[in-house]
Design a protein that fits this description.
Strand content: 5-15%
Strand order of the largest sheet: 1-2-3-4-9-10-11-14
CATH class of the largest domain: Alpha Beta
Number of domains: 2
Mean pLDDT: 95
CATH superfamily of the largest domain: Luciferase-like domain
Structural class: alpha/beta
Bound molecules: flavin mononucleotide
Helix content: 40-55%
Radius of gyration: 22 Å
Distance between the termini: 15 Å
Shape: globular
Amino acid sequence: MTANPFHLAWFLQGSSAQAWGEPWTGHIGTTWAQPELFLNMARSLERACFDYILIEDSSYVGESFGGSTEIYLKNAIAVPRQDPSVVAALMTQVTSRIGIVPTFGTYAYHPYLLARLVATLDQVSGGRIGWNAVTGSSDFAAMNFGMQGMPEHDTRYDMADEYMEVVRKLWGSWEPDAIVADRKSGVLVDPSKVHAVNFQGKYFSTRGPLNSGVGPQGQPVIAQAGGSPRGRRFAAAHAETIVVNAKGIDAMRAYRDDVHKHMIAQGRKPSDCKVLFLINPILGETMEEALERKETRQRMANQQVEQRLAHFGKVTNIDFGKFDIDKPLPDHVTTNGHQLNLEQFRTMAKGRSIRETMASFNAVDLSIDLCGTCDAVAARMGEVMQEVGGDGFLFSMPNVNRRTLAEIEDGLIPALQDRGLVRKAYEHEHFRANLLAY
Ligand SMILES: Cc1cc2nc3c(=O)[nH]c(=O)nc-3n(C[C@H](O)[C@H](O)[C@H](O)COP(=O)(O)O)c2cc1C
């Protein structure tokens, strides 16, 4: 048993059509626009005492496979996607403790708009909002916002560093006790406690103050997922939770140690940021059933190599439709998108063809292999946390449906709780307080 419980979060791969083509998804093809599944999810994960739900977003329709949107649209690969702020707001209204973390790209929002949106969400949620701060990586997304393409990878992080400075100043433009709400004098806000920001930077400028006022957390929680060396420096500077798909226990430990090193160099305490590792556990009532499910999942991955390459191409900006996928990936291929993913793909390839590599890449395991009964998987998660040192896991399930949610809430979570590995009740009202409680 670990000294402290570890943290749990859920990676919702975008708000809308979930798991199209997967079993147990009901009439998802016609019901996806309604928020019921997400509201169910938020309630279920709150009953399971998860720290947060992270809502992914990328703001464009994929077009990087064969130079066409066809494979993305036909197979519902990251499309349709509703606006994450709306889904986040709805989730906050059916819950009272779980953190909700929508993704907003720094390329897509002016910092003033972003600061106001996130502060408003923090207000309506009663202090439970985080922001997954991403720089974006696709030229197609950039073109949706009037740019020719994305700035170069490391420049995006330089811009995002300045962006963080601006939004933090905007969130700080109201002192915490600025609202006096004095009915006798008739004064709502004390003008001496609301300040202009007058920020003039290299990339952004704003006047301030923020017209929404601040949220209960003051500065909302920042989540991040930078995988490259520059991305890790950015994450270590700003994030209070980092999500990563590191491959195997050694890589998990090394990643977390590296984040801690960067945090210390920037004057931060390592305990102020929770590093969560991606997992997609495969559960069964018996080991045999879990293994059967794993085989089925692997068979589906073998049959869906092109779709999976299209998704991988969307995050790496690589058009795999251009290559003979029965040959290895040519050495000269690089990415201005997610660097760590491409590096992991290459490490795994070991001279194998693109098809063979993709069939096993992230198919049945993410950071670690988890397959078995709830009790066996709970025990393994505990061992892994002991070996890595912390801080928890981010569930990234391919088959998002009510059955999967029930298996986790009513099967895996009680097994983890019985072992003292995760919390049985929230300690605090606000998201940050729960996240940093241990
Ligand atoms: C679990 C996880 C969730 C992510 N969610 C998003 C997202 O919603 N939108 C996005 O543009 N990027 C997302 N990313 C990509 C990261 O922001 C980052 O670009 C990526 O991990 C590569 O790191 P690098 O930019 O430092 O190369 C996510 C990455 C991970 C591991």
